[in-house]
């Protein structure tokens, strides 16, 4: 716990305030989809939920590609504050419309599209800001805290919204979400340390635009871990979006309540795994260690074959969360150490967009596989899809991870530049 306390005080307490604001905002985001879904159902029935889901997810790719260059050119505090204030205004439009009359049919879809378009602003800006606020040995702990926020929001946000929609109504829940954006904006405004784009040193080559992403793409460790995570996310999407609900309805005694238990088990595992990843000594973010935990998480999926025993299945879901969280923490620390700081905005936006975009593919694959192949075939497919990339990482040499010649040398020069700019302030 002393490690986390030290990290929260990093940057003159700036990291702690940024993390707290982001956590509150994520909790609000966790309420938004459920509240908008309820509005859409009231207005036009269940059939329009598919369109709402498209509005939430399709713009993410476009926004993710656009936000990266902005993060490498603008102060991250300014960008986060503007993003939060704009989204607060958009979300507030729904309760205002409800207060003065009926909510226009198109408004929930417009709010969802704005959310999807700007989703990558905080998701890329936060990790890009971490190395500017936290000392290098504490990167794992800082990334573990970010993972903790995601897991907490996944459980508490939708659960709170489910209760509050029935008590105060969906528009009022969206007003709460708008307040969380304002809290985030206020927290960012209190970060005293500037978070400007990092400059190159005199005489060093400046990677820009397309060339910069090509440089990142030449790093074998980054490419390998990103590809492995994309495949893992497909398998996890199958498990959480389709197989879990199917098990709760058809295989587990007790029905629907068990779906909530399974999702809670994954989130509890993620919280424990993130705490494990961030509390150890620095330098644990090796490619082989990431591969070991990904292989273990893939094997944990086999516990689903223990249905209809709910304890066995629940333990498997917990293990998937517990083993997958350290993968995320260590891989993010690995990227922060390997990618030159002046490329963090573009790189994190691009990589997170790629990885997050694969989960819906799992839902598309899982349904026909369950229908035509049954549970056994689906579980074996998920295990292989997630596990084989993990084995590849586990069996690969760490030499490339420890000595990234081109990118690491530029990162060192940029670190010198960053130190100079900090000393000047």
TrEMBL record:
Transmembrane segments: 18-41, 47-67, 174-191, 221-246, 258-278, 377-395
Membrane topology (UniProt): Multi-pass membrane protein
InterPro entries reported for this sequence: MFS (IPR011701), MFS_trans_sf (IPR036259)
Subcellular location: Cell membrane
Alphabetic keyword roster: Cell membrane, Membrane, Transmembrane, Transmembrane helix
Pfam families the record matches: MFS_1
Protein name: Major facilitator superfamily (MFS) profile domain-containing protein
Source organism of the structure: Streptomyces aurantiacus JA 4570
Species lineage: Bacteria, Bacillati, Actinomycetota, Actinomycetes, Kitasatosporales
